[in-house]
Amino acid sequence: MSDLRDTANRITGMGRFPVPPPDKKLAIERAADRLAAKPVGALREAEPWDDFLRRIGVI
Description:
By secondary structure, this protein is mainly α. 51% of the residues lie in helices and 0% in strands. It has a domain at 1-38.
């Protein structure tokens, strides 16, 4: 159990990751904002269900 405690102490002693400034967004946050601004269904035209099943080879 002392090995586990030593490992935990070593990990906590490594420090923390730097926090980005609050006014700067990460790339994933910017992408999420762009997607959230688009209306639902605007990313792709709807495909009829039968056409989809034919395209993937089910019918």
